[in-house]
Design brief:
Number of strands: 14
Number of helices: 2
CATH topology of the largest domain: Lipocalin
Distance between the termini: 79 Å
Helix content: 10-25%
Largest sheet: 8 strands, antiparallel
Order of helices and strands: HEEEEEHEEEEEEEEE
Shape: globular
Strand order of the largest sheet: 5-4-3-2-1-8-7-6
Length: 214
């Protein structure tokens, strides 16, 4: 074999090794909500990608190759929302489908180029936490905790009466006039203060949402 062919084989092998060694950003990543927009959540798991935070959930296969995010077969749920939120879904789908550059900096993940870049923070692993399905009413009700406040109304079955939830659901930003069905994670709080809950509720997925007429 010639020296030139040997060099080409070595170069090809090195490039393949670099590509395969590119770290995959497995886990849950979340952006900060801005201008009244809900935060975006990207979850990478076993070669798949799931995205939520707009109207619909986006999902497909995903991998990182040479610093670029490659998303194949990107699909979406088909819920109808307001035009602004639907436009956000389209922009996000276009970004993910454009093979954007991706860079991990510690517990941050940067997706896209400056000016159209998602800055995401790594979230704790809640894969082992138990899940629950709950309904959330379209309006809050006055309640008294440490002080007077407005509480979410929740229930597990549609036939049950509403119960006040003294606290928030992490990652969930309800809009007035919209009723939700959520899948949540229940996370135990170690050594909670006497006046604090022993469980945290963390949004896992918006299963359904419905506009409620006043």
């Amino acid at each position: 074999m010639s020296l030139r062919n040997t060099s080409l084989l070595i170069t090809t092998a090195l490039l393949a090794a670099c590509a395969s060694a590119t770290p995959q950003p497995d886990g849950l990543w979340k952006s900060h909500g801005q201008d009244g927009k809900p935060p975006l959540e990207l979850e990478f798991k076993a070669g798949s990608l799931s995205v939520s935070g707009g109207c619909n959930r986006l999902f497909g296969t995903a991998r990182v190759e040479n610093g670029v995010l490659v998303v194949d077969q990107l699909a979406s749920t088909m819920m109808a929302c307001d035009p602004v939120t639907m436009a956000r879904d389209r922009e996000l789908a276009q970004l993910l489908g454009s093979r954007p550059p991706v860079q991990r900096e510690g517990d941050r993940l940067l997706v896209g180029k400056p000016g159209q870049q998602l800055v995401l923070q790594q979230q704790e692993d809640l894969s082992a936490a138990p899940t629950r399905l709950i309904y959330v009413a379209a309006e809050r009700k006055p309640c008294s905790g440490v002080a007077r406040m407005m509480c979410l109304q929740v229930r597990e079955e549609a036939s049950q009466p509403w119960q006040l939830h003294y606290g928030e659901i992490e990652g969930f930003q309800p809009q007035p006039g919209i009723a939700y069905r959520l899948r949540i994670k229940e996370v135990k709080v170690p050594n909670p203060p006497a006046d604090a809950p022993s469980l945290r509720w963390v949004l896992d997925m918006v299963v359904e949402q419905q506009l409620v007429q006043p």
